Amino acid sequence: MADDRAIAHPPPDARALARARALLAEARRLLVFTGAGVSAESGVPTFRGAGGLWNGVRAEALATPGGFARDPRLVWEWYAWRRALVARCAPNAAHRAIARRAAARPDTVVVTQNVDGLHERAAAVVAAERGDAAPRPVVALHGRLFATRCVRGDHEAPDDLVVDAGSLATLPRCPRCGSLLRPGVVWFGEALDPADLEAAFAAAERADACLVVGTSAVVHPAASVASTAARAGAALVEVNAEATPLSALATVTLRGAAGTLVPALLDD
Ligand code: OAD
User: How many beta carbons lie within 10 A of that of residue 21, not counting itself?
Assistant: First the structure.
């Protein structure tokens, strides 16, 4: 399996880096918008590009209500695999730099498409280091990998539920109504949480600058958060291993690894 983390990049252009640093430092209201690429160096596979398949199956075939209705055991097997993988991962230098900025400058809003919880874990560590009463919140547009809920309604189940995806009979069921439990993430074809969407787009409309990290920017409505910020006048700084549909809107694009570039952009 090829590895996104192995992509070699020339060092970033020093002037582009300096310009982006200045834009982000001067921004009074910064929106940080991330995708799977910010977690690639933590060892979490991205969805598209190299390593984007699981046992030859595309995420879009699994992460849908129809996919779960057809084969809940297969979908749970995929999520159980992802939960086990993410549980072994730790936030990387990019998550930590974003968390430091958000803690130090409360007008920073962090919005992610990731369900891995690594931004939240970095925020908790930074809050503890600073002695803050609580970590800065993260808007997780696509839900949380470790959350579990009932397919029928909003019945929640414990976050740390251990799922045996060995057979249909061993899949977890709702203690209140007996329906199958499912991962607490947003699937293709499902609506995002209205409060999360409102928070993300409100931050996009207000932002002076938007730092976009590691997203292919092809899944909407999430991807529109960054383009909305750019259209509302924010300076857009894009950090990505490759060009994306957002690159044309970006004030500065930096090609390279998030774990190197994000601290270089945000740290004092
Ligand atoms: P993708 O897998 O589509 O894109 C990852 C992006 O990260 C690509 O543009 C890569 O070039 C870039 N990348 C990879 N490694 C990087 C690194 N070390 N540093 C910087 N950039 C790097 O992931 P998302 O855009 O997050 O949705 O995908 C969006 C949504 O599609 C996900 O939230 C998920 C998925 O299906 C749902 O599950 C609903």
Answer: 16
Q: What is the pLDDT of residue 99?
A: 98
Residue with CA nearest ligand 1 atom 32: 113
- pLDDT of 3 reads 41
Task: Name the residue among 120, 101, 183 with its Cα closest to residue 148.
Answer: 183
Contact status, residue 94 vs residue 116, Cβ threshold 8 Å: no
β-sheet bridge partners, residue 184: none
Q: Give the position, in ligand 1's atom list, of the atom nearest the Cα of 35.
A: 26
Taking 50 as the pLDDT cut, the residues of the chain under it are 1-6
From residue 93, alpha-carbon distances to 32, 168, 250, 257, 260 in Å are 15, 40, 23, 11, 7
Distance, CA of 39 to CA of 92 (rounded, Å): 7
The overall longest dimension of the chain from CA atoms, in Å, is 60
Q: Could you tell me if the CB of 62 is within 6 A of ligand 1?
A: no
Q: For residue 249, what pLDDT is reported?
A: 96
Token pair of 214 as six digits: 């590691």
DSSP, collapsed to helix, strand or coil, labels residue 182 as strand
**pLDDT at residue 7, rounded to an integer:** 53
Q: Do 60 and 129 meet the contact criterion of CB atoms below 8 Å apart? A: no
Please state whether 39 falls in left (phi above 0), alpha (psi between -120 and 50) or beta: alpha
- Distance between Cα 173 and ligand 1 center (Å): 31
Residue 34 CB–ligand 1 contact under 6 Å: no
> Contact, 125 vs 132, CB < 8 A?
no
pLDDT of residue 159: 78
Ordered alpha helix ranges (H), the chain = 14-26, 37-40, 59-62, 65-70, 72-87, 93-104, 118-130, 194-206, 224-231, 258-266
The owner of tokens 């849908």 is: 64
